[in-house]
Design brief:
about 350 residues; mainly alpha; 2 domains; three-stranded antiparallel β-sheet; 9 helices
C-alpha cells in the first residue's frame, strides 16, 4: 500500500510538471504574438526573430500591457570615453543612455551603438552579459551541479549500485563512454573521453533548457551559430593537434593514382578541404536543427492570429490545428535535443578516431 501511494504521488508530480511545461510551451508564443499587436496585424517575422536572436534583456511575459523582463548588465568600451557599465533597462524603447542606444536598423541592428564626435554611428567594444551569455552560465552551473552531485554520491557510497538520478547519470555516461567514445576512437580513447562526455552533456542541457519557454529556459544557445562554431572548433583542434603522421600523410600524399597528385595536387587539395568541411558540418548541423525547431513552433503558433480576421470557422479550425502541431513539435524537439547531442558527440569521436588510426 505504501509503495502504491508513493508511486501515485510520484506520478501526480510528474503529471503536474508535464502539464505545466506543456501549457507554458503553448502560452509563451501566444503571449508574444498578442503583445502590442492589433488583431490581424501580427508581425510573424518580428515575433520569430525576436525569440531566436540574442537580446540585452531576458523577456518573460506581458502583463496588463506592460513588459515583464529581467534587465541584464551592459558592459561597453567607447573609443572616446572608455569603459561604461549600466543595466539594459536604460535602453528600453529607444532610449539613449550615456550616448549609447540600441540600433534599430542597419549593419548593427539590435546591437548597442553610439554616436562619435563626428556624428557617425559606431559599435563600441561590447562585453555585455546578453541573454545567450547568461543562458550559457546557467547551463554550465547546472552541468557542474549534476557532475559534482553524482561524484559526491559515489564518494560517499563506494561499491554500491546507484539508483534514481545517479543511476540515470551512470547509465547515460556509460552508454556514451562505451558505445560512442571507445567505439569511435579505439584504443587511444582515454585522452578524449572527458572532452566528449562534457560536449555531450553540455549540448544536451542547453538543448533541453532551450525548449522551456519560461525563465531560466528559453535562451537559444545552441541555436546561436557562434556557440556551435566554438564547439566545432574544439573538435577541429582535438582532431588535428593530436593526429598521427599517417593521418597527415594521407592528407598531403593520399593513396591515389599519381596523375591525381602530380602535376596538379587534385587529391591533396580535396583531402585538405575535408579538414575544414568536417567541423563546418558539425557547426551547421547543430545550429540549423535547433534554430529550425524553434522557428517552426513559433510560426505554427502565429497561425492562430494570422487567421483571426478570416472568420470564426477558419480561425477555430486553425487554432486547433496550431495547438496540436505545436504540442507535436515540442515533443519532437525533445527528441531532437537528445539526438543532436548524440550525433555531435558521435561524429566528433569518429573524426578523432580517423585521425588516430595507424597503419
Amino acid at each position: 500500500m505504501r509503495k502504491e501511494k508513493k508511486m501515485n504521488r510520484i506520478k501526480s508530480k510528474y503529471l503536474f510538471w508535464f502539464t505545466f511545461l506543456l501549457l507554458a510551451c503553448i502560452s509563451a508564443p501566444i503571449n508574444a504574438a498578442t503583445a502590442g499587436e492589433e488583431p490581424g496585424k501580427v508581425d510573424v517575422q518580428d515575433i520569430v526573430f525576436s525569440h531566436i536572436r540574442d537580446a540585452y534583456t531576458w523577456h518573460i511575459t506581458e502583463w496588463n500591457g506592460k513588459e515583464i523582463s529581467i534587465p541584464l548588465p551592459v558592459l561597453v568600451k567607447s573609443e572616446e570615453r572608455g569603459w561604461d557599465m549600466f543595466l539594459s533597462s536604460h535602453l528600453h524603447h529607444g532610449n539613449v543612455h550615456h550616448n549609447y542606444y540600441v540600433a534599430g536598423e542597419g549593419e548593427h541592428a539590435g546591437k548597442v551603438v553610439e554616436k562619435n564626435s563626428r556624428g557617425e554611428e559606431v559599435k563600441p567594444l561590447d562585453l555585455s552579459l546578453t541573454k545567450n551569455v547568461v543562458g550559457l552560465l546557467i547551463s554550465c552551473g547546472i552541468l557542474l551541479f549534476i557532475v559534482l552531485r553524482t561524484a559526491r554520491w559515489y564518494k560517499k557510497h563506494p561499491n554500491e549500485a546507484p539508483g534514481g538520478f545517479t543511476g540515470l547519470m551512470e547509465m547515460a555516461v556509460m552508454y556514451i563512454h562505451e558505445g560512442v567514445v571507445k567505439e569511435g576512437i579505439g584504443k587511444e580513447y582515454k585522452p578524449f573521453s572527458s572532452y566528449l562526455l562534457t560536449v555531450f552533456f553540455f549540448i544536451l542541457i542547453n538543448n533541453l533548457i532551450g525548449i522551456i519557454p519560461v525563465f531560466p529556459g528559453g535562451a537559444n544557445v545552441t541555436g546561436n551559430i557562434a556557440v556551435t562554431a566554438v564547439l566545432a572548433g574544439c573538435t577541429f583542434l582535438a582532431v588535428n593537434l593530436f593526429a598521427t603522421k599517417e593521418y597527415w600523410k594521407e592528407i598531403f600524399w593520399p593513396n591515389a593514382p599519381l596523375f591525381l597528385k602530380l602535376p596538379l595536387p587534385i587529391m591533396p587539395f580535396v583531402e585538405f578541404f575535408g579538414i575544414l568541411t568536417k567541423p563546418f558540418a558539425l557547426m551547421i548541423r547543430l545550429f540549423a536543427n535547433i534554430m529550425a525547431g524553434h522557428t517552426i513552433i513559433l510560426a505554427l503558433t502565429c497561425l492562430i492570429f494570422i487567421t483571426a480576421s478570416m472568420g470564426v470557422a477558419i480561425n477555430g479550425t486553425m487554432t486547433v490545428v496550431s495547438v496540436l502541431f505545436t504540442v507535436f513539435m515540442n515533443c519532437l524537439e525533445l527528441l531532437v535535443a537528445c539526438l543532436q547531442a548524440y550525433i555531435f558527440t558521435l561524429l566528433s569521436a569518429n573524426y578523432i578516431g580517423l585521425a588516430k588510426v595507424r597503419e
